[in-house]
Amino acid sequence: MLSQIESGRSMPTITVLGRVAGGLQVSVAQLLDEGRDPPVVVTRRADSAWQMPAPGVRVRELSNDPRLQRVRWFEFVLDDGAAIDVPAVSPGDSVNVVVDVGQVELAHAEDLVQLGTADASALVAERSVRVSARRQAVLYVLVSRPL
User: Fold this and answer.
1) Does 92 share its domain with 55?
2) Which residues contact 107 (CB under 8 A, 6 or more apart)?
């Protein structure tokens, strides 16, 4: 009977679906789920490890769900005077930077931008962006790919 259902030659009744689900120790709803993504993805603090890519810089990725590859979300903590080159992204990607606390300087191509607490900047970054902390800073970087 299962091979007939799988090949589309037979339509199971709700009773048969109940037996199959019971045999697999899942609910009928789980059996019929087509692998849709959950409506909410939660990243717990323990799920995203801090990395130290440069002296005085800590970074962790907050968007660690592989199903959400169109958007990547990072938290950076920079000590006084620390700096890091955020690598270039794919052509057409946009980079949004929000400073939670502190002051930073963004250097992109020929542009220098000063950002303080609660300031934000959006740019299309096809080259690396240098982020320097004028004083200790916490910032969030969102990289998004076009559809």
Assistant:
1) yes
2) 129, 130, 132
